Amino acid sequence: MAELSGYQAQIELPHEQEFELYHNALSLCSMKSRLCLAELDIPYKSHHIDLIETGCYENIRPAFKRVNPARTVPVLVHNGHPVYESHEQIRYAAGHAPSNTARLVPDDPQLREEMERWVDLASLIGDPIKEPNRTAGNAVPGQTLPLFATMIEKIPYRNIFEGFLRHFDKRRPLMFTVMKLMGVKALVNVELLGATLAASRRHLHIHLDALEEQLVSSGGPWILGKQYTLADVSWLVIFERLRQADSIQVFCNSDVHSLCAQYWQRLTARPAYTAAILEHSHPLIDYGSRRIQEIKAGDEAMRVLLEGR
């Protein structure tokens, strides 16, 4: 069955509110949709769906498969009709925002086209393993590997093994089993994982070079200049993953991507960041972040591996 994208008028799901969101605390795409809804001040009923990264494979069980046959989060539901894929969800939400909220889409056609380009550059497109260079959204999953490897310390083997029974891609439970056994050392001992981390870092620097140039060109404070748009919604979650993985200082500091560092501080100062990200924190994410910091502080070789410097 081909994966569905966008608004599905032919599908109607049980619902209690006009807007409902099936999402996960760690999922980058879920963060993007939550952030957009918060910026637009659109209330919604929250359905948190666990991935194995946050404890168990709730997303591959029959109940959620009825919500999304592709078994991915997030799913935005409007009056019972699902909208699949986060980049489609934020566009859809922006088109159904209350009249008294700030617009996240420029009126000018040229600026709107530029916004779409930056939304795409922050999105997951195609296979991130094969094409980490294609977008920042494709590159950033590699930075998530150390976070997975530490979070999974708290996840029982029995929960991981459910993936061998139910998950359509057996490589995922296999990778998580290896990480459970080896911890962060898997990034040293498994060539593919180490190479993925290094490629992620290399390509993210290139994408952030482009963002730095755009912030100069637009004059800031946002990607398109004075108006905060869906482009900024999309890029915030890239930076948030770097924060969670304790690598934000590698990519954004006074010596490299200094404008991006200032841009990140402006993003975190927005009320929507608190509502959509900080208020949806998860104990496993917090644990993983602390463990990465502890590992780097106690093992210089691991610090160099994780930071590339």
What do these coordinates show?
The relative contact order is 0.13. This protein has 309 residues and is an alpha+beta fold. The mean pLDDT is 95. The protein folds into two domains: 6-95, Glutaredoxin (3-Layer(aba) Sandwich); 109-307. The chain has a five-stranded mixed beta sheet. Helices cover 54% and strands 6% of the residues.
Rg, Å, rounded: 19 Å
Tell me the span between the first and last alpha carbons: 44 Å
Count of discrete alpha- or pi-helical segments spanning 4 or more residues: 16
Name the assembly state: single chain
Count of structural domains: 2
How does the helix and strand content classify structurally?
A: alpha+beta
H/E topology pattern: EEHEHEEHHHHHHHHHHHHHH
Total beta-strand segments: 5
Spans of at least 5 consecutive residues with low confidence? none
Please state the average pLDDT score. Answer: 95
What is the 3D shape?
A: globular
Strand order of the largest sheet: 1-5-4-2-3
Helix content: 40-55%
Outline the biggest β-sheet.
5 strands, mixed
- What percentage of amino acids are in beta strands? 5-15%
In short:
Helix content is 54%, strand content 6%. With 309 residues, the chain is of the alpha+beta class.
List the helices and strands and how they pair.
Elements: E1 6-7, E2 19-23, H1 28-39, E3 45-48, H2 62-65, E4 75-78, E5 81-84, H3 86-95, H4 109-121, H5 136-139, H6 141-151, H7 157-166, H8 171-182, H9 186-189, H10 191-218, H11 230-244, H12 248-251, H13 258-268, H14 271-276, H15 283-298, H16 300-307
Parallel strand pairs: 2-3
Antiparallel strand pairs: 1-5, 2-4, 4-5
